[in-house]
Amino acid sequence: MYTKKSGVITVYKSDGSVFLFPKLFVKLYKLDKNMFASDDIIDKYIYKYSYYYSLNCLSRREHSKLELKNKLRLKNISNDIIDKTLEDLIANNYLSNDRFIESFIRSKKEKSKKELFVLLQSKGIGYKECEKEINNIDEKERIEKLIIKKIKSKKTKEQIIRYLVSKGFNYYEVEKIYNNIKV
User: What is the CATH number of domain 2-95?
Assistant: First the structure.
């Protein structure tokens, strides 16, 4: 059964679950609001919606498997359909935790190895997966670039060290590198 809301079509399955299709999706697949369909057919459309929604998310930036799974859960999609969607995205090489790790590390230039590791774990990335990429980071170079950037913005030595320590860098390493920089 279908009912219309602003911008979405509500679909009620026989088991009582509810799913909202955007009107654009309904037009694309020529779904009729008066159409009655079996749960299998509805699930097929929900799968298509979840797949294209995932592709849309991935077209903006890389996502981890867990991030995408959580986004699909917010859309009230069943776990079976979510798992199938993620499997197909991985099989077609649209979803890759390795690419996500690389892009995530590139985007977090002011973070220490320790903080990057914690952030990646919160995104559902395991120790083994991110260990290689994190070990490739030259933390001394990161510290040096951040110190130079902060010196240019007229920060004192104490402010710079405190800032870098708050980002997860080692105090003694930051101080040593700061003292070696010629201003």
Answer: 1.10.10.10
